[in-house]
Amino acid sequence: MIMMQRSRVFWFFIIVLLIFPVVFLTAQQSVQEQYARRYQNGTLFYQLSRWQEAAVEFRRAQEIANNTADWSRALYWVILSQMAYSDFGSAIRDMEELESKAPNSTYTRDMVYHRARVYYAQGYFEDALLLFNHYIATTTDSDREASDRRAAAYFWMGESLFSMSQFDEAQKFYAWVVGRYPESPKVEAASYRLDLINQKKIEAELLALLQWSHEESLRTSEEHQRTIRTYEYTLNMYQRRIAELSNQDDLLDQLTEPEIPVIVSPVVQPPVVIDDSVIMDNYLIDRAILLENEIQAIIKEHDAGGQW
Question: Which of 57, 208, 240, 276 is 20 to 30 A distant from 26 in Cα terms?
Fold first, then answer.
């Protein structure tokens, strides 16, 4: 009898041990299925540009992930979704959590690039420039995706410099994108920036020309006014002298002949040269204004279509 009871207990434990792994495996499969469903929902929302809904689904997937790889992947897409709808504060906090809990993850390395993007979006251009440079220094062109990301990093370094009005330095980074990564999606944007910088240089030259023409015109006008005042003073002086001499009949014959060349010649001669100078100045100013208007129209056209 006792032997029979022991046998029943033994077989009971055997059955429990056999059933438990099945139940555990079923539970694990259920969790994995939920993770996959949440992750797929997040991916769908992300593709539809419904960033906030995507972040919610990726967050739920992260919370039920049963391994570090799935957890890191879900949190990575949470961060990208947050960046897409400009929740940069939350994105930075999640970046720090990812770096602390999964320091060896490939997503952690990519966070250097995305953190730099956040700094650029927040206006910290110098910090963004340093982080982009760090990212480039720690990566290689191992495949097409890596090459595109490095090209994008060069482009955003150029954007950081451009935003700080360092146009000559920014031009080098844009040129690197165009020259080194001709198949990169950033080539078109970099080419546009190069054209824009060239237009800015032409605009600066035209503005300098306008300023020079204006200053030269002012100097010419001032010289003309001084010449007129000098002639008027000389004329008045001689007229007063003539009036004085007219009272002296004995000296009138001696002073009459010199009066004509002294009074008339200085007044008639100068306007011929001054008129030519004024005409030339007006021509230069009109031409410079016309060129500037054309350049402004080109820049506005680029601004209207320059989205990336």
Answer: 57
Q: Are residues 278 and 149 in the same domain?
A: no
Parent domain of 261: 203-305
Q: Report the greatest alpha carbon distance in the chain.
A: 174
Give the tens place of pLDDT for each residue, 68-86.
999 999 999 999 999 999 9
Listed residues 197, 232, 262: the one ending a domain: 197
Q: If DSSP codes are grouped into helix, strand and coil, which group holds residue 243?
A: helix
Q: How far apart are CA 211 and CA 230, in angstroms?
A: 28
10 Å CB burial of residue 16 (0-12, 13-18, 19+) is exposed
* Cα–Cα separations (whole angstroms), residue 177 to 121, 172, 223, 234, 303: 21, 9, 53, 70, 20
pTM, rounded to two decimals: 0.59
What does the angle CA 181 – CA 186 – CA 191 come to, to the nearest 5 degrees? 90
Phi-psi category of residue 49: left, alpha or beta, with phi > 0 → left and psi -120 to 50 → alpha: left
